[in-house]
Amino acid sequence: MAYKTTEAQRKASKEYRKRNKEQEKIQSYKRTAKMYINSHATLDDLILFHNISLKRMEELLSDPLLSEQQKEYYQQELKKGLNE
């Protein structure tokens, strides 16, 4: 079977995925979520996800490890996104 990538590249990719399983899993979740939202989600689904994401953002913004400057930055970014 003819591949577009070299054997060395396929081996390196396989090793990377093996060493970074958690990161690969998270990236897969992100791709799946984006595809679902962009291709299949209904308005009800989008409202549900919006509410879930707002709740999660509140949780993350209340993290005591975030500096006030970081919190202010993220809150401004959220406001920009809501106004667009």
Based on CA atoms alone, the radius of gyration comes out at 19 Å
Low-confidence stretches: none
What share of the residues does DSSP label as strand, in percent? under 5%
Strand-and-helix sequence, N→C? HHHH
Per DSSP, the total helix count is: 4
Total E-strand runs: 0
Layout of secondary structure:
Blueprint: H1 7-19, H2 21-39, H3 43-61, H4 68-83
Textual characterization of the structure:
The protein is an all-alpha fold. It folds into two domains: 7-40; 42-84. Helix content is 80%, strand content 0%. The chain is built from four helices and no strands. It has helices at residues 7-19, 21-39, 43-61, 68-83. It is extended, with a radius of gyration of 19 Å. The termini are far apart.
What's this model, at a glance?
By secondary structure, the protein is mostly helical.
Features:
single chain; 84 residues; mainly alpha; 80% helix
